[in-house]
User: Fold these one by one.
Assistant:
Number 1:
Amino acid sequence: MQSIKSNALEPTRSEMAGLSTGQRIIRLLPVYGLPILTVALIIFFSLLLPQTFPTYLNFRSILADKAIVALLSLAATIPMMAGRIDLTVGFGIVMWHILAIGLIVK
């Protein structure tokens, strides 16, 4: 089995050298769009709901809710970096959500 390194989203230095600032931003959006969107949403809701959203309790609740999925996602990173695909991580994420929903309903 042969692994192929994908760099489809990562722009090279030579590719970025000839671009204007606007073109660079458009080229980097697919790569860094999700972290930018996350920061933008945090700022937006912090300004919109300053009494409820940017609180320690809300931050702790969000972290506690997504801790298992984050750990499983980190576990999926290792085989992906090695050029392999591990489908059992997806099974673990789905199983955790089914278990959590079942416990919430009961």
Note: Residues 16 and 23 are 9 Å apart (CA to CA).
Number 2:
Amino acid sequence: MLLNVLLGLMLAVPCSAYAGDALRIATEGAYPPFNYVDDQGKLAGFDVDIASALCRAMNVECEIVAVEWDSILDGLENGDYSAIVASMAKTEERDKRADFTDRYYRSRSAFIAKAGLYDDVSPQALKGKCLSAADGTVQLDYLRKNYSSSSEVIIAKDTPDSYRLLAEGKIDLILSDALNCLDFLDSEQGIDFDFAGEALPGEATSSTAYIAVREGDNELRKRINEAIQVIRLDGTYERINHKYFPFSIY
């Protein structure tokens, strides 16, 4: 019943943000398994599948484009696209530049290091170690706030770059989204690495992901929120979820 009501509301209300045109959505394309470029050169991943499903639920064509992480909010503000589906966590700074939908998944952050080396990942235990996280992430903010006085913090260009630094032995540990790390740990590059210590508690390093829209675009935000509920209720979300993860990430 609720699914029918939501579908009726969505079909009854036109959305001026994309009326007559494809809904242009940005993702990063460098954050597997959430968003990446596959062997055929096409954008793929959980975020990409979710974005496509939301467009189908809203009955609109969508165009998904790859944008570098450090300029992805700039493009939204400039009107280059209408939404960002890129595993974006909500921060105080980002909240000043965009509006956000309801969440579409959540995770926690964890350290990754050579398997078996670190059980304690407190600032005291990692004193003198070289740590890294991707630029522009809540994980980097956390390292700077809690570890920079006792450890060296290296800024990686993006998450794949942090994995490269770790695999090449240029850093001791990385802090990243625990779900994202699964893909790395299952790869040949990550075969000698594992989670270090426990996943970090608290909201400061949680990776609750939201979809960003331009500030004031309440119409599109509402439509996307309704679409999230539709794909949750009709089983689409669950199918996409289990394509990438063996457990629910909602």
Note: The CA atoms of residues 36 and 216 lie 29 Å apart.
Number 3:
Amino acid sequence: MSHFLKESDVDVVAVCDVYEKALNQAKEKTGGKAQGYGDYRQLLASKDVDAVLIATPDHWHAQMAIDGCNAGKAVYCEKPLTWSWEEGHKIVDAAKKNKTVFQVGLQQRSGTHYAEAKREFVDSGKLGKIAYVRTYWHGNGYHLRKPNFTEQPAGLDWKAWLGSAKSRPFNAHQFYNWRAYLDFGGGQITDLFTHWIDVVHWYLGDDLPVAATAAGGVYYYKDGRDAPDTISIQLEYPKQWMSTFDATLVPGARGAAIEFMGTGGHLYIDRGGYRFTPPMMRGQAPGEPIVGKAAMALETEHVRNFVACVKSKKTPNSDVVSGHRSALASNLGKIAYLQKKRVTFDPAVEKNYVLS
């Protein structure tokens, strides 16, 4: 929400949260101008609202996104678009039926340096045949928030927070660190891998994996979580290439990037910039690397793209179908991890879920 508040042509007129303290904090960020709601359906009923931002635990994304489409609002939904890949079909159907301007919070698609690297090294053919893509994202503080209470605080509607998840007594650690629990999120798999595999899909134009394998576990943080703190995933694709994702949350682990390995060179890219390195031939001096840097904050570029599309009714950079397929890929990795075996997927089931 903070990025929308910075835009001069955006008025944040309403906010919603099932925890009264968080709701009041959100209202304060708007200077007290926004109407507060405890039920998102009441917010969707407001005629003052043109577009909605969904930034909730993952298990709420699908229902809120569908309801937003059906209410005639433009929708910006944080990644991953879905908690399970099957939910994506319902969201795509709702968005197409209502002709919804729909942006997924995969902000790399609006990054100037990401588009530049794609054009200069992938689209141009300079990278050559790409057979292997390595992605990794080590370390993240989302799972280490310290609850300042143990009992359910006043003003929190725990039942509403749980939504479609299995009923259970209030748990402060699950409330504060929901991404560490598979009932509400997918840990690093869906929270972080979704970002990177979306870039890979975008660059290679091949966005439906046919198989996934995974290994990992809760190796370090023995605090009740069930989302792995260490994970390795391998995805295979129809056009004969594969992508891997490695991540660990253990202290000391750092680094988050994508590396494309091609017959024509090596492309490293992260949120700060890129570096292309020509292949080193035996007996020859190594070629000079080509580097580029980010022009501005990705979130700013992405929010501005969404706002422009709300006005023009054009398709945003991270549309509902590409967002669904990137969530599908990371969720396939999650399934492989849970089943402890190689799982396969038939891309034919997605033939009806494309942008019209």
Note: The chain has two domains: 2-107, 112-296+320-350.
